[in-house]
């Protein structure tokens, strides 16, 4: 809800018992001490002690406290201390209560993303004509992605988090990423993720066939590593992926400049266009190898790899023992 002065957001706990009017102002959230007590299910004395400790240990009181005029139950207006999101979170991480745990999860994963960073605003806000700041921050975010040192495949995921309907916990989001992953991998290797893992994992090869694996020591390889498709991409495929992602990022910045909100389904259609313009084949099927079969294959290869490693370790131990015996004889 909103009025001429402030916006109000209602937070309700999972069990429906907690309902707090959250004051949104100065790009953050504000609660009074009594509201914080209600939110975390703790007495005023306990919350007061936590606030005192926060001021002594990590936050400046001047930066997180504001006086706002509020209307009390007697109908009169009073100046009341309100505490912003930084203080609320700091107290929340100190409070031991079920309500505190639920709020921390909600605030950390949702509130900062939606209300402060502005990368995942809902459609009503975007259509209200007050979305300029959102798109400015979106462009900044896209430039950060472009300059980041993350592997290109991960940058694609970063792009999608800017979608207005992005929800990391939605099953459809997980399925969406699988579709995008397979489209990209098919474009650069003519194999889906499962096919890459199934056909390229081989314990007889260095690093089990992984070519973009970032760890130098073979002993550090885990079973999870050999199940990740991107680890099997060669240098040429990684380079091609980088070029495609650069085109994708350029398009994303163009959409942000034009203030065009993008949904996740829109991104898939745009990806097909970019792949087609780059002369790449568009994946239109689910591949010949299932994820389950690929995982079974990579698991067996990993077992074979571990057996080889144990054999090498035994041989090295025997050589060391023989050298020690010779040294003792001398």
Brief account:
The chain is α+β, with helices and mostly antiparallel strands.
Tell me what the structure shows.
There is one protein chain. This protein has 330 residues and is an alpha+beta fold. It contains 13 helices and five strands. The chain has a five-stranded antiparallel sheet with strand order 1-2-3-5-4. A hairpin with a 2-residue loop joins strand 2 and strand 3. Helix 7 packs antiparallel against helix 11 and helix 9 packs across helix 11. The radius of gyration is 27 Å and the shape is flat. The N terminus is likely disordered.
Q: What sequence of helices (H) and strands (E) makes up the elements?
A: EEEHHHEEHHHHHHHHHH
What would you call the shape?
Answer: flat
- The end-to-end distance, rounded to whole angstroms, is 88 Å
The total count of helices amounts to 13
Poorly predicted segments: 1-10, 115-123
- Number of extended strands: 5
Compute the CA-based radius of gyration: 27 Å
Strand portion: 5-15%
The SS-based structural class is: alpha+beta
How are the strands ordered across the major sheet?
Answer: 1-2-3-5-4
Helix percentage:
55-70%
**Mean pLDDT figure:** 78
Largest sheet: 5 strands, antiparallel
Key traits:
flat, five-stranded antiparallel β-sheet, alpha+beta
How would you summarize the topology of this molecule?
Layout lengths: L6 E6 L6 E7 L2 E5 H8 L3 H14 L3 H4 E7 L5 E8 H8 L5 H20 L5 H5 L4 H16 L4 H9 L10 H19 L3 H8 L34 H23 L6 H14 L13 H39 L1
Antiparallel strand pairs: 1-2, 2-3, 3-5, 4-5
Helix pairs in contact: 1-2, 7-11, 8-11, 9-11, 9-12, 10-13
């Amino acid at each position: 809800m909103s009025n001429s002065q402030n916006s109000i957001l209602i937070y309700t706990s999972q069990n429906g018992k907690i309902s707090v009017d959250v004051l949104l102002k100065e790009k953050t959230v504000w609660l009074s001490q009594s509201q914080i007590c209600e939110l975390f299910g703790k007495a005023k004395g306990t919350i007061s002690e936590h606030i005192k400790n926060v001021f002594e240990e990590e936050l400046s009181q001047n930066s997180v406290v504001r006086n706002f005029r509020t209307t009390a139950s007697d109908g009169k207006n009073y100046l009341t201390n309100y505490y912003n999101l930084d203080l609320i979170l700091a107290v929340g991480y100190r409070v031991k209560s079920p309500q505190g745990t639920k709020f921390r999860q909600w605030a950390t994963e949702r509130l900062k993303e939606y209300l402060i960073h502005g990368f995942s605003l809902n459609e009503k806000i975007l259509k209200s004509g007050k979305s300029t700041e959102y798109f400015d921050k979106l462009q900044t975010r896209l430039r950060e992605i472009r300059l980041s040192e993350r592997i290109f495949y991960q940058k694609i995921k970063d792009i999608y988090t800017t979608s207005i309907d992005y929800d990391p916990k939605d099953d459809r989001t997980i399925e969406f990423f699988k579709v995008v992953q397979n489209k990209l991998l098919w474009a650069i290797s003519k194999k889906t993720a499962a096919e890459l893992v199934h056909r390229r994992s081989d314990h007889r090869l260095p690093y089990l066939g992984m070519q973009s694996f970032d760890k130098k020591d073979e002993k550090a390889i885990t079973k999870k590593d050999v199940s990740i498709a991107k680890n099997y991409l060669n240098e040429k495929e990684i380079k091609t992926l980088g070029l495609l992602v650069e085109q994708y990022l350029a398009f994303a910045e163009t959409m942000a400049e034009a203030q065009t909100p993008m949904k996740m389904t829109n991104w898939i259609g745009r990806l097909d266009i970019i792949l087609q313009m780059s002369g790449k084949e568009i994946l239109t099927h689910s591949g010949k190898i299932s994820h389950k079969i690929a995982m079974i294959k990579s698991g067996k290869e990993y077992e074979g790899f571990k057996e080889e490693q144990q054999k090498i370790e035994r041989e090295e131990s025997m050589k060391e023992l023989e050298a020690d015996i010779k040294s003792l004889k001398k």
